[in-house]
Design brief:
Layout lengths: L25 H15 L4 H10 L2 H8 L5 H22 L9 H16 L6 H4 L6 H16 L3 H26 L6 H11 L6 H8 L9 H21 L1 H7 L6 H9 L3 H24 L6 H23 L23
């Protein structure tokens, strides 16, 4: 049975009935990010500006960071669009570096070098048309982030998280070229970083903790991991048509369960739904016990939970993962926009 033959309901996901309200900074931030991607020539420039509106990436950021200032919304949105556009450049059929890990590595090296070198966080580098567009983009983001975040330890963590993400994208591409040889446990370990969720942890500190650091403990790390798994499994379900049916990627929890454990798509989906439910139970339990954490940790846990829930809401409502031939009946209709 092909994916086209399935009619699976994922209505048990609690993220479908939660329309967004328009944020006070929505329009200004959206205009800002479209100007930036057009000025820097972020590929595919002609489609990306339209995608910002069609998928409503701006509402993704304003949902996840509802109390953010205009500068914070702009910075978070710029970075979100950096991740989405980079992912489409290396991980989709239309992308110029699709299934080309050697070319991806060259691009990643340029981005990492620019992200770590403060001397490049200037208008001179951002406006240098001889540089790769995503190299210029990360210079712009680091220039902006370092300006609005006075805490250098958070800036350092942000750079480290970006490096983790990019290196694991390359590992995913290599796994793809090799025909999907990773075990389930190997995939789960890499997926923690490859989804880009961990790159947002410093942004949570910036917005929810007002630039103050949290104290990283084993419990905080486990809450982060559980939240990350919720987002990853929701994404692996919703992106099945886009990533597996169209792009033929082996990098999916569902695909590995089907190939290595002989599950049907419906059985694999139910397995993921159960894991999502269990991880949400754990995170909510930690929220109820938040008084035993110190104040910054409590703010961080609350911010991380809101980020997790709102990102999942957005994924379920966005057109990015909708298609008339999706195996999931709830994803077969496009939505015009979020409720304002």
């Amino acid at each position: 049975m092909s994916a086209y033959d399935y009619s699976i309901s994922v209505a048990s996901l609690e993220f479908f009935d939660h329309p967004a309200k328009k944020h006070c900074h929505h329009d200004e931030a959206e205009a800002h990010c479209i100007e930036v991607i057009e000025r820097l020539g972020i590929p595919p420039t002609d489609k990306l500006a339209k995608a910002v509106k069609f998928h409503d990436y701006t509402s993704l950021v304003t949902r996840c960071f509802p109390m953010a200032t205009l500068d914070q919304v702009k910075c978070c949105l710029d970075f979100s669009l950096f991740l989405w556009s980079f992912d489409d450049r290396v991980d989709t059929v239309e992308g110029e570096h699709y299934k080309k890990p050697e070319e991806q590595q060259k691009l990643v090296n340029k981005i990492l070098q620019a992200s770590k070198d403060e001397t490049k966080w200037t208008d001179e580098y951002v406006n240098n048309v001889e540089l790769d567009p995503h190299e210029r983009y990360i210079c712009h983001i680091m220039q902006y982030f370092s300006r609005i975040c006075p805490n250098k330890s958070i800036v350092k963590e942000f750079i480290s998280r970006i490096e983790e993400y990019l290196n694991n994208v390359i590992l995913g591409s290599i796994n793809w070229v090799l025909g999907g040889k990773e075990t389930l446990e190997e995939y789960k370990k890499r997926r923690i970083y490859e989804g880009g969720v961990t790159t947002h942890f410093p942004l949570i500190e910036l917005v929810y903790l007002q630039g103050e650091s949290k104290e990283e403990t084993e419990e905080i790390i486990e809450i982060e991991n559980a939240s990350n798994r919720v987002i990853a499994f929701v994404n692996d379900i919703l992106s099945f048509y886009k990533e597996i049916v169209i792009a033929k990627s082996p990098n999916s929890y569902l695909k590995i369960l089907m190939d290595q454990q002989g599950l049907t798509l419906e059985e694999a989906t139910n397995h993921c739904l159960h894991q999502i439910e269990e991880d949400l139970k754990y995170v909510r339990k930690m929220l109820k016990e938040k008084e035993r954490f110190h104040p910054n940790q409590r703010k961080y846990i609350e911010g991380l939970y809101n980020f997790t829930m709102e990102l999942c809401y957005w994924q379920c409502l966005s057109n990015r993962y909708r298609h008339p031939q999706s195996p999931y009946v709830e994803l077969r209709k496009y939505v015009e926009q979020f409720e304002c």
